[in-house]
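During the first year of the project, the team set up a workflow for recording each protein of interest as an amino acid sequence followed immediately by a discrete structure-token representation. This format lets reviewers and collaborators read both layers of information side by side without switching files. As required by the reporting guidelines, we include two representative entries from the current panel. The first entry is reproduced here exactly as it appears in our internal archive.
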Amino acid sequence: MSIGYHMLNTSTTLFSGAVSFLNEPLGGGLQADGLLQILESGTTTSVPALAPALYESNYQALVATAGCSAAANPFVCLQTVDMNTLINATNVLYGQPTLFGSRPWGVTIDGNIIPASPSVLTAQGAMYVLDHSIVAALTFFPFSASAKIPFIVGDVMDEGTIFVKPNTIATDADLLAFLQTDYANRNASFFTNATSISTLTSLYPNDPTQGSPFGTGNVTFFGAEFKRGAAIYGDIHFHWPRRNFLNIAAANHVNAWSFIFDQFTPTSAAWQGVFHTGEIPYIFQKFGPADGTLYTLAQTTLSYWLSFAYNRNPNVSSNGPTWTPYSNKQNNIVFTANLTSMQPDNFRIQGTK
């Protein structure tokens, strides 16, 4: 999902929008127009970027399922088949995650827009090193030495729940099988050797009181280990990438602020918790005065966004507590209806190292 808008040279993007927004400048795909950035639930390493060859088997399966195998040019065939045929063929791949992965299509290292692995480039600091033999035209990126553009980045508390819901995870074997589907088309098996399994299960014990949605006690919703899987998924794809991105920014003296949105909305299902995209109704002011503290929270959240857009700093004209930069003490501002406050960014810290 991607949501973006511009306000006085400010871009706000969500998940795949944030990932795409940050990946494109790696190859000079965007111009250095000085956009400030508010990144909701996504950074350069939220989803893996793969070489095209790793998608080849998925592509061939799509060609066959769409009835294009015998065509002189299968790609042109895919471009011209009936829309419903293509949709149905795509759904066939998504319906078989053990064969094609839970994400059959994803970010591709094309050598042009994305010149190399974003995770490797991020770790190397290629976003701020002026070595154009490593990566070109990076003046737009927030870590660039010529334009260290400030940014806000954050997650909701229960990022993983809606990505796990269709899976009834009842046993350790179910959990590991679910996690492995995310790597099915990547020639990687992170959860099949004894060492990695032991580390994973010790960091994320089979205890529903420690699972996501957090703060829901012993309720398991869809299976004994659903909440365990949701906690792990959220940390792999959201909380670790956010921390990694922020730590690199701090090391390079880029002004950055981190947030966690932790307000459950009464219209949400209990199993969702504070789910991925759950902050959007607050950012876009879907609550009115009759909604009481939810309305107040929406107003407070927006005040930080507007202050950042106008002042390059979320604190100048906000109506909440002082939001300190991440580089100060590695703190998040945590948004809740009862109390918005600064808190240490140390939850499940061992699992995201």
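The second entry, processed by the same pipeline in the following quarter, appears below.
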Amino acid sequence: MADSDSNSGSCRLQVWAAQSVVPAKPTLSRISSKLPLSLHGGSAISTAAFHVVLLFPKSAAGNSGWLHASLIKESLGTALVDQPILAGRIRPRDDDESVLEIVANDSGIRMVETTANVTAAEFLAGGENEVSKLVFWEDIPGQLFQFHPLFSLQVTNFTCGGYSIGFSCSLLLIDPFAATSFLKEWINIHKNFLANNDEANFPLFYHLRFKGHPATSLVQLTTRKPMTYTVLFTIVSDACVGLDYKDIVEVCVQEAEQEVDRKMMDEFGVMIKRSPKSDGTEVVMMLRSESRKICADGFSMKMARTWDEFRFGDVWFGEQEKVEYASCWMSNSPTSDEGFVIIYYGCDATKVLVLFP
């Protein structure tokens, strides 16, 4: 494979297989969701992506990343039956080509299988900056966006027998809270596939038995610019009564700026998810206002570079197969130097993510 940015330093990755994961059943009703903003403009949100990495040590049960990857084709396909929009693509609307939408057309999630030339322990010793190598993501192209996946997955095998599973999704497709819920639902489905796997026979998509030479540079691994600081606020529902989203965002940004000693721009993007069951997502540009002053009582602030609130560290595939390391983060285009805010109105609490470059 040709060298790429992700192969700089001591850890080098090679791609051995690439495939698409589609829903296990055809999506007969073409579900669609209107994009909340322009594809390439108006806010840093348009190019942002959410990433999750789960790293497992060598399994005492003998399960490898190759085995998990072969079963993911089926388990993730099963999970996509209830969320087919995640396997969809962006396209212009039939009645107005100036308006873009995401359509559940079963084009699939992109999955790559890779190997690393180090052990899992050696990899982790390289620090947080190395972790971004464990996710596969490509920026949405300006012209050929109709063919570009909005959700991708990377399975990496280490020399010690350990492995990692990395997920990436566009913020245009799904917010981090909904993505986390989907991934945990898939994990439960995957456990069942793993428990029912016939050890005497290789799964259909077990590519290690066909292993020959690494894939060509048609599959290129790259790293993206992570959002350096993330502050997560949890606000009890009663504290939000009578407040406009601008009031909530303003106080959260002010508190976050003090916490991490960073400054948000005077105008920034805000993604608004009105309820857990809401299909629509709104994105607006918000101007700072010095006159907007409210009390911060009732705000519970947490700062987590690894987003501990999402509890990915509790993931396990069996008693002998538990996560050794978990990390979540947002990234953006290398050319973007803007922060933004995500506000999520839940049933019991409102959550606000303030992200700084």
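For the second entry, the following points were noted during internal review. Residues 1-8 have pLDDT under 50 and may be disordered. The two ends are 31 Å apart (CA to CA). Both points are flagged for discussion at the upcoming steering committee meeting.
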